[in-house]
Amino acid sequence: MKAIGLTGGIGSGKTTVAAMLEEFGATVIHADAVGHETYRPHSDGWHRLIATFGAAILAPDETIDRKRLGAVVFSDPQALARLNAIVHPLIFAEIQRRIAAYRAAGHVRPIVVEAAVLIEANWLPLVDEVWLVLTNRDAVIERLEKQRGLRPAAVDARIAAQLRDAERERYADVIIHNTGTLADLRREVRTLWDRVLSRG
Question: I need a surface site. Which of 28, 87, 105, 173 has the fewest CB within 10 A?
C-alpha cells in the first residue's frame, strides 16, 4: 500500500485535490485534523501547550482556543517554533500509527496524507511519493480574497512566510498545475489517480 504526500502552498487548491481524491476512493488523512486531535482537552499535547503558552490560550470549555493561540505564535517566530516543536512530532506519530493500522488491516489502495507543511515539518519519511499542487499568485489572491476576505497584501505576507514553490518542487515526484478550470483539474487528478492504481 503506497502512501502519497499531498502538499502545496496557501490557496494552491490542495484541499480541492484532496476532496477529489476522496471522491475517487482514496483514504485521505488530513494533517490539520490530526493536529487538532493532538491537543484535545487533557491530552499530552494539551498539557504541553498550556505549560508553554499559559492558560490564556484556553476557551471556556477547556479546548485550545486556536484564535488565541494563533495571536500568540503568528506574531512571534520563536513562539511559532516552540508550538511546532510540540505539535509536529505528535502529528507525525499519529499519522504513522494510522498508516500502520491501515496496512495491518489489509488496506491495499493508496493512502493520501494531505499536509501543507509536509516538507517543512520533516514528514517525508511517512510517504512514498510527494504530489505538489501549484498555481499562480493571481489565482491565490483571487481565491483567498473570495474565501477568507484577505486583501492582496495579506496574501503576499502569508506566501512570503511559507516555503517557496521552487523549494517544494525539489521534493515533488508529481506536480499538479492548478491553473485551468475545475474540470481541467479534475481530469488531471483522475488521470494521476488511475495511474497510481494501475501500478498497484
Answer: 105
SS (H, E, C) 171-194: CCCEEEECCCCHHHHHHHHHHHHH
DSSP 115: -
- pLDDT tens, position by position, 28-67: 999 999 999 999 999 999 999 999 999 999 999 999 998 8
DSSP H or E run through 50: helix 44-53
Residues 6 or more apart in contact with residue 131 via CB below 8 angstroms: 4, 5, 6, 7, 17, 172, 173, 174, 175, 176, 192
This prediction's pTM:
0.87
C-alpha to C-alpha distance for 172 and 133, rounded to whole angstroms: 10
Give residue-wise pLDDT tens across range 128-151.
999 999 987 777 667 766 766 667
Q: Where are the beta strands (DSSP E) in the chain?
A: 3-8, 27-30, 111-114, 129-134, 174-177
- What one-character-per-residue DSSP string does 5-36 give? EEEE-TTSSHHHHHHHHHHTT-EEEEHHHHHH
In whole angstroms, how far apart are CA 17 and each of 21, 46, 90? 6, 31, 25
Question: What value does the CA radius of gyration of the chain take, rounded to a whole number of Å?
Answer: 18
Sheet with 111-114, side-by-side order of all strands: 27-30, 111-114, 3-8, 129-134, 174-177
